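Inputs:
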Amino acid sequence: MTPHDTHEEPAAAKAAPGGGTPLLEVRNLEVTYARTPGSPAVPAVRGVDLRLEAGQKLGIAGESGCGKSTLALALLRLLPSTAKLSGEILLDGEDIRTMSWGRLRAVRWAGASVVFQGAMHSLNAVHRIGDQIAEPILLHGRATPAAARKRAGELLEQVGLPAARVQAYPHELSGGQRQRVMIAMALACDPRLVIADEPTTALDVMIQAQILRLIEGLVADQDLGLIMISHDLAVLSDTCDRLAVMYAGRVVEEGPAKAVHAHAAHPYGRALSSAFPRIGDLASRRAPRGLPGDPPDPAAVPDGCAFHPRCPVALDVCATQDQVLRVAGPGRRAACVRVGDDEGGAGAGDGAAVAREGAGGAASEGVSETTGSGS
Amino acid sequence: MTVHETTDGAAGQGGAAPRSARALARARRLHALARFWRQYRSHRGGVFGLAVLVVIALLALAAPLLAGEESRSVTDATGGALEEPSGEFLLGTDQFGRDVLALLLWGTRVSLMVGLLAAFLSVAIGALVGITAGHFKGWYATVVMRITDWFLVMPTLVLAIALSTVMARSLWTTILAIGVTTWPTTARLVRAQTLAVESRPYIERARALGGGHGHIMARHVLPNVMPLVLAQTTLVISLAILTEATLAFLGLGDPTVVSWGGLLQDAREAGAVSSGNWWYITPPGLAIALVALAFTLCGRAIESVLNPKLGVSR
Amino acid sequence: MSGAETGAVRGGGAADRAPDGAAHGARDLGVLAPDGAGDGAPPLLSAEQVKVVFPGRRGDREARAVDGVDLDVRPGEIVALVGESGCGKTTLARSLLGLVTPTSGRVTFDGKPLEYASRALKAYRRRAQLVLQDPSGSLNPRHTVYEAVAEGLRIHGYAGDEQEAVAGALSRAGLRPPERFFLRHPHELSGGQRQRVVIAGALVLEPELIVADEPVASLDASVRGEILALLLRLRDELGLSALIVTHDLGLAWNIADRVAVMYLGRIVETGEVEQVLTAPRHPYTRALLSVLPESETEPVILTGEPPDPSRVPSGCRFHARCPVLASGEAERAGVADACRTRELPVLPGSGPAAVACHWAEAVERAAG
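Outputs:
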């Protein structure tokens, strides 16, 4: 079978529950950067389709350099001017890409907001946090200063901090508390879509659990759409409804979060999901699993399937033939030549598979392990 | 280069790199230099400053050829006193009949030498004080920084005048006076940069490897403050040249050598200001301003190439 | 109490610790042998009643960052020191390397107490190495890979062939062929490669012990496993001991032999990884395990953040956040008062699994 006979659109339509206009729809988004003025443009995002309903949580997973953060910034046109966008980014049916600046400003506050990683640097050290939360409300909400301050206090309570903390300066807060403040700021103008870029990276497990619980609660209460970006598939599958795994600027796997994490169809998805072990799983005891090699340089993406040089189960054809997303089960798609050959990757693991030296062997071992045992 | 899959033990034998490591290192350094030059070139002021400096440096080197030894001598003067510029004396003559242009050329040497040496001395003291004060915290840093502050609030010129008055009149006195009075700014800057570098994890790694104070300061702090020091040097040179001229103008320079400041003082004593001998008083003044400007422009350009976000990335 | 004493009681031979894949293979099955391999070996590194107190600034109270810790690392053993940020685990690791002088207690290495004179420390640092969390920060951006790896050799005046030693360390750290990396600068490497360079820099002096502070926390998921596999392989091939400081329990599960859970300056639970992580006894360990994404138990989310080391509560230092005390279970076990008022003893640095919890002890005593 050829990889092109499954077209992308039907699968996308099937993936979205219910009709009507989704909260966010991204069609064939491409982002290219010129690294220095005049140099050839480097693709960072190479054709991504996404769909998100209100109240839904979408996780985007991938290594650094896979384009996931660029994608997040592109959704609100927060990229530097050297970046070129093409495709469509429809928020409530309105294309953000072609929007006027005035409208975009309105959307950035009231329509969608971003929670960045590293709350330490995103807060201004010389202003009280209450004023920082109230600032967008004052700028856009036409509220009186007193009302805005009151609202800031309410928002802090909403994210689990005492309202009295409006008087605090960022340095008086701990890392977890600062991340809460960042979330309060993102909620200040009642957005419909929240994009969280690695919201819990660098936080301890306990604080991470607190923040994830908070985000989940807010999404459920306020019927927000959430896009959460992380390299930790376990965290995403725990929090999100659907998962998209990105590699080299493309979505290589997409589907219901739990299913993707437990039985990834793409070998890259499998490598990511086995990176963080489940405690008690004897197969991972004294057997850490990684993926040899580094993500490709966006300026020199390999021919064929971009993942083939690192793939533990690559076939000869992978070096020449580019792979598009194809149906890999109910509501699932994956961009791997092995998908659709037979169900489950375990059987396909042998045969013409090119086993790689060293830790690659461990990785391929992990692949069959994960697919075999599952949950 | 071949990619061979080696097992652990065997790789140790492959010590000799395919190309000599030193040749590669040299190529790499050249490459870095070329990149520096490419970025430097985009600063037009810096390029102008550099061009002026190259011309002035060449003139200073060629002074004996262009002007000749005898042109400095009062007794061998060929022209009349205070002649206006003419075909023979392009910038006229002084009160002894010497060619002002020739004196100006000779003065270039002294001004540049004093500027460079004094700046070198000043920056060396500043860097030493700054690095040690930043590295050794505690009472040492407190004492040293108090001294730095004391020098910082002392008016540089007054201090330099005081020093040159009590010491023997010579070029070295001038250099010493300038060097000893202008270092506190450098010390403060270098100390701040040292503190930033010292907080980086690689310092702790070096300590855990067993590196002592000397190792950390020489191998880690110094290379990281070097760009700052380099930029600071070029900026201090112009300050040193101005100070040298000022000291000479105030009659505190070495009377036996011809310098731009000395020329200005001679001109003032000869009454050039009141009698309108512009050719005597303007050229040295312009030369001082031009060289100081050129060094400042270069310093600013170097600073912006090397220092855009020093400490954040390379 | 020292490890040698417990070892004598428990038996077991040092030879079991030899870097031998087969020996570890048997342990891989996860069966907790009563005489775990190497339990009897005298510890290579050992902390005895170590306390580190930082003086308070301008009238603040002093901070008891490490407040009485016994911890042993035996030859060829990987010990994970687990805890939240601010629990004192990094300070403890630094004091074990002599980077911080303990306020009281002592650190012994290879049977001899650590001396803090600079010459003695330099000799010690040849044998015990540090790997830091952020590989980008722990490499000087102006040094090449070669210079970074050779730094230790130069500090200690290595007499042999420097280039050969550097190449050997790089290839052992998985950067092959090593010559290709000699002249690169850190910014030209990926995060995983940088961490390999840092590890190579530690390996080049052929140390007996590596102390790694969150060695994979800032790395991507795919690289994480590779670096952990490297640490595990170094133990198997070179017999290297390691103390790994982390907040990541999965890491401990992946590579460690023993785990010590730290809370507010004290170790609250310690033992073999299988035992502590699959059957945790301390409510704090239980809570930490329960909030992991794939945990099967109901998550117990502790409110608030670790309390301040300058205000260590009386009694059990965890009692203010303890879910067992809050739910009244401790009351039922009859230890609630003890939790609030009676301080717990310092746990032994090695030997059988131990827990510092009044409730766990009471429950186990009741169960027989």
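Remarks. The two ends of chain C are 26 Å apart (CA to CA). Residues 264 and 317 of chain C are 7 Å apart (CA to CA).
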